[in-house]
Each structure stands twice: as structure tokens, then as C-alpha cells.
Amino acid sequence: MPSSAWLLLPALAGTLLLGNCDSKPNTTATSTSAEAPAVAYATGGSSPGEVKPTGPKPAWGPNLKPEMQAVIEQLMSLKPKPLPQLTAPEARQQPTAADAAMKQMQVSQITPPPMNCDTASQTLMSGVKARIYTPKTGNGPFPVIVYYHGGGWVIATIDTYHTSAQALCEQTGAVVVSVEYRKGPEHKFPTAHDDAFAAYQWVLKNAASIKGDAKKVAVAGESAGGGLACAVSMQARDKKVALPKHQLLVYPIAGSDTNTPSYQASTETKPLDKAGMEWFFKNYLRTPADGKDPRINLVAANLKGLPPTTIIGADYDPLKSEGKALADKLQAAGVKVNYKLYAGTTHEFFGMAAVVPDAKQAQGVATADLKSALQ
Questions:
Q1: Residue 231 belongs to domain spanning
Q2: Which InterPro entries match (predicted)?
Q3: Catalytic entry in 223, 233, 262, 266
Q4: Is 223 a residue of the active site?
Q5: pTM for the full model?
């Protein structure tokens, strides 16, 4: 767990950031419900529920939304070290954006209500586990969303991105399978991609065992996970496996060119910058040549025949340019695309619906598109 795990019990890390369609946050533990432990709230002059920054906007983010800026301030207060200064094991112990948003909830005295999804662990295959989120209400079989977390194929876990998976379950009424794929540098490319596709195939074969409908399966992911989700769709197409009904790609890693306009503008951005992305590539790819593989370099891949796609982009993000490029390339290939860029946001904002209004809006767009595709 990150070094800021003192904020809440580790099993609850990242669980307090959810916002449902009524903008009320939600919470869950791992496999049983639990209440957040008592914490001391620092009011800082703010009224309960108010999210506002305390200092000037950073030089790199002159148009940051106030709530987004407040989260970034909390992140910087946790003093994360730059990724290039760290080994992968060290980086996995660093404070995360999820920790920062959780701390902002404490400062703003935002209290989460009980969860509306049950969770359970599941071993999909050797070395690959998942957390299964199942709606508490409604009758199965439910649609299924196979979700891949971010972290540059190197850091983070299903715990770090818990709020996104929980939001998709609660708001779509689908079973969500959040996949814990293997990571570099211990497991280099294409291990995470192979695990992602194997997990998708497991869901197709075993949907009934998790109250799911094998004929109504979508894929989704954030950052590296967004790239994995699209690569899964490509492999399903090429290997004549049933295609996902939809793919949700949230600020996906869609290329290996670190000289795009957004990379050039993101030398200082938080929580992700150009140097951090280059560190991810160094730790996951075997050689620079792997960056040209179509599973990494999605913007140059054959995208014909892929499922309808929703792409969510963040403003201050080295991946902004390639996300838009991927949307354009998909449309040119005849794929139906809904692309939304959220001004004033940063990488990792999607799971922060309880504190960042744009995250609530983005989750609403994603939910509407997924529900329509999975009817």
C-alpha cells in the first residue's frame, strides 16, 4: 500500500471517492461492508462538503478547476517522489492520486453512504486474480464489464482504482470484473496484455458462475488499462473471439511517441508527467521496439471492426493528444466513437466523483454509453 495508507485502513483505501448519479459518494470494503473508522477532520475554514484549494494555481495548470486543484494540493502535501528517482518496488509504495482525493474528502468532511455492490475475490488463472463487483439489487444474469486498472503496467492495483470499478457496477447495474494483471519490470511486455486477454476469455467462458451474461460483455480501463482494453478488443477481433459490446477507454495509453503536443506541455504536470511515462515504458517494454507493437501503439494499429467506443480525456495530461488521435483514427476506421475532453482536469480524475464534479459528469457519460450497449 502507498505510504499514506494511514489515512484509512488499507482495505478501504480509495473507497471513499465514489459519486453516484445523485452525486452522493458511496463506499465498500473488500467482501463485506464496513464503516470508515473515525478520523479527525481539518476544516480549514471550509463548510462541510465544500472542496476548494488553499493556494494559487500551479504554473503548469493555469486553468485547473478548483476542486481538481484542491486534490493536487493534497497530493503534493503527501510528498510523492518523482518516478524516475525510484525503483518499481519503491514506486509502488508512493502516495497516489486516490490517496489525495481520499484525504480531500476528510478535509471537506464528506461522508460516504453504504455500498450498493457486493465484492469478492476470484482467481482467474495462475498469477491473475480479480475482484468481482456484483449489484445488490436486480436479477441476474447481469451484463459484465471487464475492467483494467491504470498504473503504466508497473504500479497500482485494483485497490488503487477501486472507486472506478465500484462506480461502473453501481451506475450500470453490471457485474464488474476488475483484473489484477501482472506488471513490469518483473513481467515485461506482453505479459499484462496477455493477462488482459486471458481474463476477457475467462469471463466469456465463466460468466454464468459470476451471475453474468456472456452475450453482454464490455471492456473498460484507465490509462494503461484503457490501452489494455482496446488491445483486448483487437485480439478478440483477430482471433475470432466474441467482440466486446463496447469499450470504455479513459485517458488511454494509445501510443509510444513522447513528443506529442500534450507530452511537450506536460513536463511538470501532476500526477503524471512526461518523465513518468518514459519511466513506465522503460520498466514494461523489453526494448524500445516494443513501443511500435500495435497493442502499445494503438494510434497506428488496424482499428477496423472494433466495438463502439467511449473515450474520456483529461486536460493536463501527457496522454491527451494520443487520446484524441485514437478517437479520430477509430472514427476513420468506421467505429462509432463518443469522445469527451474535460477541461481543467488532470490524469486520474475519473474515480474522484465525490470531490471533482467533472468526474461525476464523466462517469455519467460512460455509464449511459455502457448501459445503451449492454441492453
A1: 117-373
A2: AB_hydrolase_3, AB_hydrolase_fold, GDXG_lipolytic_enzyme
A3: 223
A4: yes
A5: 0.90
